[in-house]
Amino acid sequence: MAHGTADRQPARRPGGRNARVRAQILAATVELVARDGIAGFRYEEVAEFAGVHKTSVYRNWPDREELVVEALLRYAEDLASVADTGDIHRDLVDFLLALAGGLETPFGRTLEQAIQPARQSPTVQTLTKILDQRVAAMRRRVDTAVDRGELPPVDSSFLGEMISGPVHLIVNRGMRPFTRTDAERIVGVVLAGIRATASHA
Question: Is it the case that residue 132 has pLDDT exceeding 90?
C-alpha cells in the first residue's frame, strides 16, 4: 500500500504542464532577446527554441509585445528586490551586487540598451516600470532604516541614485568586473556622507 501511495505522489496537478510550458517559452524569449535585442527578436523562433508547439506560444501570448514584456518582468524581479536584514549597509551592498550581476549578463545589457531610446513602445515603457519598481524597493528599504534610526532623515530616491549610478558606470564601461569591494566602498562613502551632512545640519 505504501508503494502505491508513493507511485501516486507525482501525479500531475491541474495546470502543471501548462506552467512548465510557459516557463520554457519565457526562458527561450529571454535568451532570444539577449541574443538579438528587442528590435531583432523574432516571435516565430520562440516555439522552436523552447521545444514546444507554436500554438502554445500563440495561445498564451497572442501578442508579441506581451510575451517580451512578461519575459522582461520575470527576469527583472530579482533586480527590484532589496533584503531587510536589519543592517542597511549590508543590504545595500547585496543589492548593488545583485544589480551588477544582472546587468553583466547578455540579457541585462540588452535591458540597459533598450531603455536608452525614446519611450515610444509598450516594451520600453514596461522596462521603465521595472526601473521604477527597483527605485520603489530601494525607497522602502531606506525609509525603514530611517524609521529605525539606522540612518538620519534622507531623500531615499537620491540615496538610491547615488549608490546605483557607479554600478551602471562600471558595468557599462566593461573595463572590469564589479566586485563586493566596489559595493562596500560605494555604500560606505555614501552613507558616511549622509551621516556627516546630518550631523552638521
Answer: no
